[in-house]
Amino acid sequence: RRLAAQIMGKLGVSSFYDPLIGLLRDEQRDVRREAIRAAGQVRNPKLIPLVLEALNEPALRSTAAAILFTWKEEALPVLFDMIDHQSQDHEYQTAAIDVIGHIGGERAEVWLKHKLTDPSARVRTQVLRSLSDCGYQAEVGEKEVIQDQIRFEVALGTQLLAFISDFGENKA
Fold it and tell me: How far is it, in rounded angstroms, from Cα 156 to Cα 2?
């Protein structure tokens, strides 16, 4: 099955994506990894959601992210939708947001700015990193909003450090 995925990838025929669907859902991780690589060579947009699913698995996350980068802006709507409309764990969300930051562009920046107030601190931190990866520069009207968010994050971090200091080493 790995060899089949490799052959499909080397062929790189976009219309010949259907057999990859089963391989992207294979029970063996090595087969899925090879199918992810092949999906990047076949480049059929219908495979993007299946490659995105691999972000849920730590052992496949870097391979999936690298392939998603190759789709560039074509992958953005699917990434936005998966993060916005499906309950995913924070590891998945931060990996997907990292991909968005590396893809970059105006659409990525606009979407990332809306995620600055996400309830999850991990997600907010990744959003700030991804905005930086995009080369984002706040415009005059946005600078205060971004600075307020950074101040909020610093204050939250300071509070957490104070709590840790107050509680010390007491396990209770």
Answer: 47
- Nearest Cα to Cα of residue 65 among 89, 94, 45: 94
pLDDT tens track, the chain, 172 positions: 999 999 999 999 999 899 999 999 999 999 999 999 999 999 999 999 999 999 989 999 999 999 999 999 999 999 999 888 767 778 889 999 999 999 999 999 999 999 988 888 888 889 999 999 999 988 888 888 888 888 888 998 899 888 888 887 766 6
Q: What is the CB neighbour count within 10 angstroms for residue 68? A: 29
Closest to 111 (Cα-Cα) out of 127, 89, 90: 127
Q: What is the pTM of this model?
A: 0.80
Residue type, 150: I
